[in-house]
Amino acid sequence: MNSILIENVSKNYTLGKVEVPALKNINLSVKHGEIICLMGPSGSGKSTLLNLIGALDTPSNGEVHINGENIASLTDRALSKFRNRTLGFIFQSFNLIPVLSVSENIEYPLLIQDISSSERKNRVNEYIDAVGLTPYSNRNPDELSGGQRQRVAIARALATHPSIIIADEPTANLDHKTGKEVMDLISSMNKKSGATVIFATHDPIVSNYTKKIIRLKDGEISES
Amino acid sequence: MIIKIAVKNIMRNKRRTILTSLAMILGIASLLIFTSFISEQMKGFREGIIREGLGHIQIASSESFFSKGKFDPSAFLIEKSDSIELKIKSNQDVINVIPSIGFSALAAGQNKTMTLLIKAYPHSKVHFSKNQNETVNGQVSPSFLIHGNNFSSKTDEIIIGDLAAKILGIKCGEILTIMSIMPGGALKASDFTVCGIYKGSESGKIYAYIPYESREKLIDTESPTSFTVFLSSENQTDKTISTLKNSYPELSIKPWHELAEFYTQVNGMYSAFLKVISAIMILVTVFVVMNTMSMSVFERIREIGTMRAVGTSRKRIFSMLSIEGFCLGIFGSFIGIFFGYLLSFAINALGGIPFSYDGFNYHVRISPDFYDAIKSALPVLFVSLLGTLPAAYKGSRLSVAETLRY
Question: How far is A77 from chain B (nearest CA, A)?
Fold first, then answer.
């Protein structure tokens, strides 16, 4: 069974009175545990496709199936629950909640699930330890470096035990060395959890970690 | 954690939070001080009216006595008054029952004559205070004496207002001749010695007081036209009236406030004024909170998007933002109440607010009532939540993909 199945998906945006196509008739399938990389120039539709796979947006045409579930059929409440339990997000700008500490940021998505307090604490400690940030657990995001913040985001994405991890330009705001460290971390986590990982990137380092690269150009898959 | 995030977000932009709260704090504190000032004023006014002769309860032979009794007292005499007085006194909440009769009469002094309204109370149950600060409980106390003394046991004494004494050119110890007209038209006159002159309010200028024991010198009756009843507490008024009405269905029994028309008008005017001030404060709070929360949501669009991406539902985002506005309201309300109390202590430490009414000078002390404090804060709390709702709704309805592009 496919982890992700995208059938004839198009996405159009309206700019004023003009309809701009962002994705044109995309077909894609990703198996469980695969690591794939979406590559392409700016405006090629990488982030749009990632948003559709991440149930953050809905297609104008076609269907997106995640773990066999057609996301267009879900209500907002069900979509929220689905994102929380099935997907883990890693963003280019880290997107941590600035008023929460490192451990609270990791704990936040777990609070939405019905997980006991002791289990939450265990998971938070486990993932802080896994990303090597135990000494920083009470610090706020603005007291961390870019690499440390991205590690918090990785811990947050993995703590819910998602079956799919979506990473949008995870190394774009990091230097070469830190970017490589972050990719090593994601890769090792993928081996441990067996989750499907989808990257969108320009960074050639990222492509070294994937077996399958999908190249997008003008909203279409040009090569896979 | 939602509450924690809300509180931390409030503290995130301290300057904006302080400015928003300041509007609430000043509004609540001012309203509290103003409410307390009016409440103290009205309390003094109320107690004054009760002491001056209305008591807590007035009992008359019929309803029309209260409008026509001054002009024709003989038509409103209460029969078997002694037994009624004794029975009313036996009520555990009653501390004094004072029979009285009032009528108009001509007063002739050294060179001038004027009409006075005479009120007759038992000499031991009427007491003019020695100064405006002396409080008299359970007795009729129309005002305070500026010359002379209260009634002794003699029956030919009279106490008159300062203006009447000036018009009549009369001093304490001098004789004043009082003439009244009997129901049949005959005149009845008697000499009275002025034993005291009191400071008259605007309405008290035409009143004079004689001992109830000497009423027969001027009016041909032994019966009173009314009873003034003083209770141990004003709160017992309705209960006692109900008991008395059961015992004396033939009598007209009224609480003081039904007869204090001026008090009711002033009270109504102040209440309306307070409502207008509250409405202004509420409007200001709504606009300030709406503005603050809109800015707060606008600044955190990406953050809201992240929360939605990791699985936060619209409902939860809406709750979080609403709690934020509500916490802002709680913060503003508590500090506002605290500031109001602090301000009242400062005012009292400086001697109170000076106030002058009808020639009487007071210093009104401010004692904020906790119930008033809550009453001032609750609408602010409510509207701070209300003011948050549009921003909270907007924040919760944002498209996740769009918010993450910010």
Answer: 6
